Amino acid sequence: MKAQNKQTGFLGEKFSEEYLLSKNYKLITKNFSTKFGEIDLIFKDGETTVFVEVKTKKSLDWGTPEEMFTRGKYQRVKNMSVIFLKGRDVPCRIDMVAILLNPDDSLLSLKHYENMGLNMV
Amino acid sequence: MLVKIKSVANIGLETLPIEVEVDVASQGFPGFNIVGLASKAVEEARERVKTAIVNSGLDFPGKKITVNLAPADIPKDGAAYDLPIAIGILAASEQIPFMTMNDNRMTMNAIYYGELSLDGSLRATKGVLLVGIFAQKEHVSQIYVPIESANEASVIEDIQVFPVRNLKELVDHLHQIESITPIKHLEVSELVEEVEFETDIFEVAGQELAKRALTIAAAGGHNLLMWGPPGTGKTMLAKTMPSILPPLSPAEALEVTRIYSVAGLLSTGQSLIRRRPYRNPHHGVSPAGIIGGGSNPTPGEVSLAHLGVLFLDEMPEFPRSVLESLRQPMEDGEVSIVRASAHVSYPASFTLLAAVNPCPCGYLGHPRKECKCTDKQIRKYRSRISGPILDRIDLHVHVPVIEVEKLSTQHVSTSPTSKEIRSQVIAARKIQIDRFAETHLPAGRQVYTNSQMGNKLVKKYCQLSPETEGLLRLAIEKFDLSARAYFRLIKISRTIADLASEINILPSHMAEAIQYRQVS
């Protein structure tokens, strides 16, 4: 079961990466992780560093992927990004990609939410 | 970029300048924070401002936005900061011609004040009159306020009042695409006009003495207590009071409107309170309701009745705490309300009109009906109104049972109409206004009526002849009246003399004044 969830998450990250690259974002790194947590994807959108959290779901039985991105999760990504930036003050933001997969692991829907910070305060 | 926008905070009737500092930083994580001792309503401005900007077709910057309401130690409440915050954000993100600290444009010297709706339109906001008065005092030439409340400020001279319908319109105005026309300035005197009254005093049968007492009360702003059995017309007489009161003078109208503006009791589009207030709270009222209260204190009934009438029907039914709380405002003409967050003074110079029954059943002293109350019941009933309160009521008048013959139509037609009495009252008030034209109370308040005179003024304007003085002394000794009653009797006799257009107070005037002092 756990392995399956990991597989779902991996697929989601793959789909998001493809999508954001298609939007002319430049990939900086994937799965940046320390003992405090992990950032799924880090891009550059022009001058702005974009930290992306991907949430992938196979069924809506336990809620939508959007619901999985809570204030606590936002805070964790924010803390992680400070570690990544080593405290430098640069233009940056946190995005979220919500993905739904079909039972056969093909993409059902992908939604990109820019600048989650404005909804999280 | 950092932008500073002017706004104000209304604390009671005091208006303080507030600077809304908005910083939109390109560095750091996007967010929207408001600091500066903001209450919940101000905190929630975040959601309103954000949505209103987006729904006005403008761009809400996805950057780190910090709003500071300075000075930071004054508590800010209410939604009136929505507009300055929104304008600040739009200016800081360069969506409207910017006004930096060094750039002293016209838009800089303006006050923004108003609550935003989610669709970007402005909602009626209370206290706009005070904003106008403040702007005039501080030489701020323009104020931008919600269109629905803008009329309140139309009576203020020397400032331009811009009625703002919605955010988009204001942005176009600041871009000079399409200008908002400032509202037309109105003279207060143009607005003070005659109003029709529902009840006329001549509809009340008989009760000549009570009508005379009402006339004196209206002419000099003296407190009046009417007592008598049920159904004799006490309440009806009180209801006719507004019809014999003089119209508000322009200065008075402004004073009253200020209070109503703070209380948010002006109806949409109304610019001025035109008739003298007449408040008749039910006896279930709480002390905070009558005096004013709340954590950010709002005016109570005594202040809403400022320069008008506060009518307490069935006075003994009011809780003791409520009646006793009237003592200070009745003496000083203002109330000070102290709460943890604020200390506020509201003017409360009102004429108290009270109606009481002689006993719980109401028929004590009735010519035909028997009173069923025991002595103890009567004593208990009377003790509900304390001595200090009664001492502050100058006119006591008995409203007796009316004889059947007097109810006939012939009698009704001979009694004076409200209009006639009113012209007498207006004449007497005119004398008083001329008398006190040069006199000011501390804190800039104005004396309008004889009842507002302090002891110093009584000595100055109410010289008594030895004969009159002798009569007064006799009454004081005979009825054991207090020092306060001494001065109050002089004030009443002054009003009676004014009603008779006499320069000096004659013994007959004093005798009439003493007649109303008898406490039964």
Automatic annotation (TrEMBL), chain A:
InterPro entries: Restrct_endonuc-II-like, tRNA_endonuc-like_dom_sf, UPF0102_YraN-like. Pfam families: UPF0102. Signal peptide: none annotated. Keywords: Endonuclease, Hydrolase, Nuclease. It comes from the Bacteria. GO terms for molecular function: endonuclease activity; nucleic acid binding. Belongs to the UPF0102 family. This is UPF0102 protein UU93_C0005G0058. It comes from Candidatus Amesbacteria bacterium GW2011_GWA2_42_12.
From TrEMBL, chain B:
Pfam families: ChlI, Mg_chelatase, Mg_chelatase_C. Residues 220-403 form the AAA+ ATPase domain. Gene3D superfamilies: 3.30.230.10, P-loop containing nucleotide triphosphate hydrolases. SMART domains: AAA (SM00382). Transmembrane segments: none annotated. Keywords: ATP-binding, Nucleotide-binding. GO terms for molecular function: ATP binding; DNA binding. NCBIfam families: YifB family Mg chelatase-like AAA ATPase. Belongs to the Mg-chelatase subunits D/I family. ComM subfamily. This is Competence protein ComM-like protein. It comes from Candidatus Amesbacteria bacterium GW2011_GWA2_42_12.
